[in-house]
């Protein structure tokens, strides 16, 4: 099946196929940054989940337990 290619879109990411990586990569970076600059920072810096201790075992902290100070850290904006 042939993929229909259209111009840039703020609502749809660029399509990657086996022949267009050098075309696709910078457009995907721009698309992600346009959607949310913080999402790009997390992709570049890597995701490190907040951890908590439960019964002596370190486990990822559930998002609904994050404090206001911890949320920017999870978005790649701050280091704790």
In short:
The protein is α+β, with helices and mostly antiparallel strands and 80 residues long. The protein has three helices and two strands.
Strand order of the main beta sheet, please?
A: 1-2
Largest sheet: 2 strands, antiparallel
Query: Strand-and-helix sequence, N→C?
Result: HHEEH
Outline:
elongated
Radius of gyration: 18 Å
Mean pLDDT: 80
- Proportion of residues in β-strands: 5-15%
Query: What fraction, in percent, of the residue positions are helical?
Result: 25-40%
Measured between the Cα atoms of the first and last residue, the distance is 48 Å
Number of discrete helical segments: 3
Oligomer: single chain
Low-confidence stretches: none
State the total count of DSSP E strands. Answer: 2
Structural class: alpha+beta
Protein name: Gag-pol polyprotein
Organism: Cucumis melo var. makuwa (Oriental melon)
Structural features, described:
- It is a single chain.
- The protein is α+β, with helices and mostly antiparallel strands.
- It has a domain of 28 residues.
- 36% of the residues lie in helices and 10% in strands.
- The protein contains three helices and two strands, in the order ααββα.
- A hairpin with a 2-residue loop joins strand 1 and strand 2.
- Helix 1 packs across helix 2.
- The protein is elongated.
- 0% of the residues are buried.
- The mean pLDDT is 80.
């Amino acid at each position: 099946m042939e993929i229909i290619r259209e111009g840039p879109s703020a609502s749809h990411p660029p399509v990657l196929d086996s022949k267009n990586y050098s075309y696709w990569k910078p457009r995907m970076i721009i698309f992600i940054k346009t959607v949310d600059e913080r999402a790009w920072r997390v992709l570049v810096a890597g995701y490190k989940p907040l951890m908590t201790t439960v019964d002596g075992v370190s486990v990822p902290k559930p998002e609904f337990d994050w404090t206001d100070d911890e949320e920017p850290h999870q978005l790649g904006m701050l280091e704790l």
